[in-house]
Design brief:
The protein contains 14 helices and 14 strands. It has 549 residues and is an alpha+beta fold.
Length: 549
Amino acid sequence: MKMKLKRSIGFKMAVAMTVGLFVVISLFSHTSVKLSEKRLLAMAEKEASKISAAIKGSLDNAMCAEGEGSVQKVIDAVGRESMVHDVKLINRDAEVKYAKNPGEIGLRLDQSVKSCALCHDKATVTGDNLTVLFTDADGHRILRNVNPIHNEERCHSCHADDPEVLGKLLVDFTTEDIDWMVMENRKLLIFSAIAILLSSTLLCFLLAAVLVKRPLRNLLLKMKFADNGEADALGAISGDDEIAILDETYDSLMQTLEARNQRINQQMEEMLALFNVSEILNKSDSIDDNINLILKALSIGFHVRQCAVLTVNGAGGLVERGACGMDADKINAVIAALADPELYEMVDVGKTFLASGCEGVADFLAVPIKSSGNIVGVITVHEVSGMEITDDELRKSFAIIATSLAPHFQIGLARAEKQEMQESPFNAFIVMVESEIAKVREYYGSLSLVLVSVNNYSDLCRERGAEAASQAVQELAKGLSVNLAVVHECCRIGVHTVAVILPMLDSMEAPQTVNAAIVALGSDLSLRVKIATFPDNGDTALVLLHALR
C-alpha cells in the first residue's frame, strides 16, 4: 500500500529532526560567532593598548631627544602600517599637533562626534588608557585607543608643570582582519550546519526506511494476508525493538482470535447438536431412548469418551441409567463418590463442579440436571477428546447442556414413571386431565388446572389431630365443588392439596372463579392457589403439573 511522502513516518521524522537541528545549530552558531568576536575584540584591545604604549614611548623619546621633526617621522612610520587606520597627537584643547594626515594638523577635534562622544558624554572622563569601538562615516568599524600624555618631570623643560596631562595619543586600528575572521567563522558554521542538516535528514530517511518502513510494511502485509484468511503467510519480524514487540503481540492476538473462533465454531456445532437432540427428545416417550440419545449426542457431538447418566430414585439416591466407555465397577465407584454428604450437597445445589480427590475414581465433572427446582439426575463426564476435565470452558458448556436437557429429561422420567405406576387416584386424575385437554383441543379452547393447598396443614395436625386435619381438606374439596358455578372436576390429589379442572376457562377467568368459590366457602384455612393454563403453560397434564411446582 503506497503512501504519500509527506504522510510517511520517515518524512515527519526528517522534518522534525531538521527543524530541531536548525534551531539548535542556529542558536549555537550565533552564540559561537558572538563569543568569538567578543574574544577577538578583547584581544585586539589588549594589543592596541600595548602598541599604543610602544608608540607613546617612541614619541616621548623622539620629542625629548630629537625634537618635533622626529615626532612626525614616528607618526608617519606608524601610519604606514596596514593595521593602523589613523594616528593623531592632540593637546589639552583637542587641537591636532601631529597626524598621519598632514591636512588635519592644526584642526580642533569636535568632541560631539560619535568617536569622541563615547567617552566625553560621560559625567567624568578618566585619564587612563581607553579603547573604544565605533563605526566611521564610511561604515568601517574602527578600534580607537586613547592614551593620555602625562606631564612628567622631564617634560617640564618645555611645558609648565601645572597641567597633569599635556595631551593624548589617538591611534585608530582597523578591524578588517577581525571582521574577516568572524565572517569566515560564520561561513564555516553555516556550511557545517547545512552539511549536518542534509546528512541528518538523509540518515533519518535511511534509518526510517530500514528500521521503521520495512518492518511496518511487512506487518501491514501480514495484516492484509490475515484479512484474506492467510494468517501464516509471512513469518515473524526479527529484532527486539518496539515494532518486533508489536508484531509478536499481533501474532499472539491472532492466535487468540483463531482459538476463540475455533471455540465459537465448536460451540455452534455443539448447540446445533443440542438443538437436534432436543427436537428428537420432544417426540420420544421412552426415558431409555432419551438417555441413549443423550449419550450418543455427547459422544459424537461433544467428543465425550467416558460419561454416565445417573437419576435420582424415590429414596433420594443415585442410580445408573446409562453410560459411555465405562464399566460397572467404575460407575459404582462414581455413585459411591457422589453419595458422600459433601459432594451430594454440591449436587443438590445444582451447579456444575469438578469432583476431585474421590477414592477409587479419577477427577471428573459432575453436571446436575435440575428442573423446577429439583435435582432429577446427574451427568458425570470423565474424559473428553482434546480437552482437560479441569477446563473452565468445558464446565460452562456442560452446564448449558444440562440446562437445555433438563425439561426433556424430567418429562421422560415422568412418562416412564407413569408407565410403571399401577392405577391410583393420582393416575386417574392425570388421565382425567388428559381427557379434558383432548376435548378442549378439539374446540381450540383453553383449560385451567388449579391447585389449592392448605398452608397450615401441619398446625392443624398438631391442634386437631391428623384425622381432623385430613377431614378438613376433604371438606375443602367438597365445598369448592359446591361453590364453583361452572363446569369443573374437583378431587383431592395429595395430603393437603385439592386439584380443580376448569374446562374452557382461560388465565383471566379462572382466578376470579376460584377466588369467588373460596370466599363463598368462608373457611378459616390458610390457602395457597396456583393456576396453570392450557395451552399457555403446557399441552399435557404432566407439563401443567410441572408448571405448578
